[in-house]
Amino acid sequence: MMMEVLEFVMSVEFWRMSVLWTFCLLISYWKLIASYSCSSKPPPSPSAFGHRPLCIITGATSGLGAAAAHALSARGFFVILVGRSSHLLAKTMMDIKTQNKNAHLKAFQVDLASFGSILQFKASLQKWLSDSEMHSSIQLLINNAGILATSSRLTCQGYDQMMATNYLGAFSLTKLLLPLLRNSPIPSRIVNVTSFTHRSVLNVQVNKDIVSGNCFSRSKRYPYAHVYEYSKLFLLLFSYELHRQLGLMDISRQVSVIAVDPGVVETNIMREVPSCLSSLAFIVLKLLGLLQSPEIGVSSILDAALASPETSGVYYFGGKGGTVNSSVLSYNAKLAKELWNASSDLFLESELASKETISVSDGKS
């Protein structure tokens, strides 16, 4: 165990997380203080819409996802919980029901690192909406699922698992559910949960090899801090590009897109880091006043979810309606377009592979 900890501490990735990520977090707070903007108006109540809005939250089994599910169900949303563990989904639903017996909830077991699982979720969701005689639409999609993997792992499609979960899964899910979001009788919204760590990336090339994460699996030592940063930067670039494209398609902006940075929240995302180091990091961040509980950290997500319908293309940080500018690189329109094209190519390849798999399965049966 001691050798594992020493090896971890001696790595470049560890010091990148310890020093550079802390510096990036402080930059975000400095920007918030320097140009503080907060919403003085209370968020609208879903009941004012005259219709119970449907909200999908990925990574809803713990941490920020579970906190968002608790808060939004209490505000009158019908919450769809999405997660990898059926056991944890059931536990989260039980916890919410214990506090709010009138909560409207539904759970789907989905692996965001698997395109086939996402595709199956869309089909199951549409069937459930039809069987429940509910309107075939979604009012709110919160792409919150994310992992910090310290070792290289590949998905069944051969993609890097962290990149697939943190970015490609969100891209694919959003692309598949966009028709349901656009079909909403009231303005709908996509909220992408990103991170201040994106500020660590000063330059990056975008191609399918990088977006799929294939290039990282070939590295002698898995650059997990870099991969995490890239995935969060890509989520931001995607958010801004989707905001731009939706604006071109629909001037009245039926679907809005908001990026959210909750800051540092005490969740289990650090579970692959040696426990003594993650505990020490949490203690230091708590002493600095930078560590939040999920119940406090979720405030930025709620700000975004409940902002006025015309709000789109912004970056929420710090709670209380606070917004800041993300990194200069995240606003690079050329890079965002390249990312969109590479991600779309991977999406089409995954879709084709899934159809071929289904075709082969049907042939055998």
Automatic annotation (TrEMBL):
Q: Key word Translocase present in the record?
A: no
Q: What is the gene called?
A: LOC110749417
Q: Which GO terms describe its molecular function?
A: oxidoreductase activity
Family stated for the protein in its record: Belongs to the short-chain dehydrogenases/reductases (SDR) family.
Origin organism is: Prunus avium (Cherry)
Give the protein name, as stated in the record. Dehydrogenase/reductase SDR family member on chromosome X-like
Establish whether keyword Iron is in the entry: no
Keywords recorded for this protein, A-Z: Oxidoreductase
UniProt xrefs under Pfam families: adh_short
